[in-house]
Amino acid sequence: LAKTTQPISMDSYEGQEVNITCSHNNIATNDYITWYQQFPSQGPRFIIQGYKTKVTNEVASLFIPADRKSSTLSLPRVSLSDTAVYYCLVGEAGGYNKLIFGAGTRLAVHP
Amino acid sequence: NAGVTQTPKFRVLKTGQSMTLLCAQDMNHEYMYWYRQDPGMGLRLIHYSVGEGTTAKGEVPDGYNVSRLKKQNFLLGLESAAPSQTSVYFCASSLTGGPQETQYFGPGTRLLVL
Q1: Which of A105, A85, A107, A109 is nearest to A13 (CA)?
Q2: Are A50 and A71 in contact (CB under 8 A)?
Q3: Closest partner CB to A101 (pick from B31, B43, B96)
Q4: How far apart are the CA of A41 and the nearest CA of chain B, in angstroms?
Q5: Using CB atoms, which residue from B44, B92, B99 is nearest to A32?
Q6: Residues B26-46, mean pLDDT to the nearest whole number
Q7: Do residues A82 and A18 touch, judged by C-beta distance below 8 A?
Q8: pLDDT in tens, A36-49
Q9: Which one-letter DSSP state was computed for residue A5?
Q10: B55 CB contacts (<8 Å, ≥6 apart)?
């Protein structure tokens, strides 16, 4: 499984757009990129997943360049409730579902 | 649907005691997982199951045992608890295997071993 690197922490203010970039230089051809969100005292929650180009859902957007060696999670107009830890994971489709969680990015949204 | 539930929410053990953590899911998922999360770290996979009656070791299996006698339940056992097993334990499930499948997590069990 490809190792991921993401910033340890980020700060933002309410109403701003937040972009969290994840580096995965050794991503393989069949790997998917998935982001999870974890609030304090809760289990992680799936946010978004992509393979290439751009994916958007009601919560976030995921931008993946052509070389797929990095990806950027974009949270539009964050609120205080978006304060959480965000994990970037890379794993191969098929086989058993092994998720490797790094330390994640701690996002703090300020009033 | 309740999703994934875990019992108990919090437990204090003395070194050497045993206990069982229960995970239940009502989504008819085939795959179930047990993770542990230590302060400031991501989750690490302890054991997983790809279906009723099957179990397999994950990243950090030592000191733990698991059983999947019913499809909806996945039990994690500590036979002789050690302080190093103080952690937050999360159970998760997914419909099938593969990282493209969403994993659904429970609320966690906080375990303190004295």
Answers
A1: A109
A2: yes
A3: B43
A4: 7
A5: B99
A6: 91
A7: yes
A8: 999 988 999 999 99
A9: B
A10: B47, B48, B49, B66, B67, B68
Residues 6+ apart with CB under 8 A from A64: A33, A50, A51, A52, A53, A54, A55, A70, A71
Fill in the amino acid letter for B82.
Answer: A
Q: How confident is the model at residue A98 (pLDDT cuts 50, 70, 90)?
A: low
d(CA B60, CA A36): 21
The residues, any chain, with a CB within 8 Å of residue A26's CB and separated by 6 or more, are: A2, A3
pLDDT interval class at A60 (50, 70, 90): very high
pLDDT at residue B99, as a whole number: 65
Q: What pLDDT, on a 0 to 100 scale, did the predictor assign at position A76?
A: 94
Interface test with B, best of A1, A97, A98, A101 (most B CBs within 10 A): A97
Distances (CA, A) of A72 to A20, A26, A32, B48: 5, 16, 14, 30
Q: Which is nearest to A20 in space by CA: A104, A97, A102, A96?
A: A104
User: Could you tell me what percentage of chain A is helix, strand and coil, using 3-state DSSP and rounding each to the nearest 5?
Assistant: 5, 50, 50
% of chain A surpassing 70 pLDDT? 92
Residue-averaged pLDDT of chain A: 90
Tokens of B83: 């302080």
